[in-house]
Specification:
The chain has 7 helices and 5 strands. By secondary structure, the chain is an alpha+beta fold.
């Protein structure tokens, strides 16, 4: 049936000699091959992109130990990432699930870099930059705030950062902060702050 969905994973069954005995019937655009194409052939010859020494070790462990193994790998190449799950099959072979997770890994790497850039910015700037959870509570470290106020990380968490405000400014500051969060508006307020 040509209307069948393209599988998001490649599935293959291999006998104990690493010959593919079954695979997805529909070709997967990511894998550029179909189960019919590889049946009877060596898994390692048809999937050289996953045949590095660490991957082979996982496969051999699943085969010899009759256990399931799951891992992510770039196979030492860095250009493509795979989520691989290998399970012992009842016929002394193994079942192999391969999923190309390259896009997810790229997104994770971009997020990691973004967080790193933000952390570098907050450390390098002379301004006090801070970030809170949706409820307006401090949940992460604020190094520039701590440097200026002398508070510890434990002291600034939640609304502890307000302990360094002048007592006459505290209620007004928290009220304005709550209003800005409620309206999702810009927070701009002057208050007196005790330095270290």
């Amino acid at each position: 049936d040509n209307s069948a969905p393209v599988p998001h994973e490649a599935f293959f069954a291999s006998d104990r000699n690493w010959r593919v005995t079954w695979g997805n019937a529909a070709p997967d655009r990511r894998w550029q091959r179909s189960g019919q194409h590889v049946c009877g052939r060596s898994f390692w010859l048809d999937f050289p992109e996953v045949a590095d020494w660490s991957t082979v070790g996982h496969f051999r462990h699943a085969m010899a130990g009759r256990v399931g193994v799951a891992f992510e790998t770039d196979c030492g190449r860095g250009d493509r990432w795979f989520d691989i799950r290998v399970y012992a099959a009842s016929d002394e072979g193994i079942s192999i699930y391969l999923q190309d997770i390259t896009e997810r890994k790229r997104a994770e790497e971009e997020m990691r870099r973004s967080v790193q850039r933000f952390q570098s910015f907050t450390t390098a700037t002379s301004q006090i930059v801070w970030q809170t959870d949706p409820n307006g509570r401090v949940v992460e470290d604020l190094p520039t705030w701590r440097d200026y106020t002398g508070q510890t990380l434990k002291q600034i968490l939640g609304t502890g950062w307000t302990d360094c405000l002048h007592p006459d400014d505290r209620a007004r500051t928290l009220s304005h902060w709550a209003e800005c969060r409620k309206n999702k508006s810009h927070y701009d307020l002057e208050y007196r702050l005790r330095g270290a």
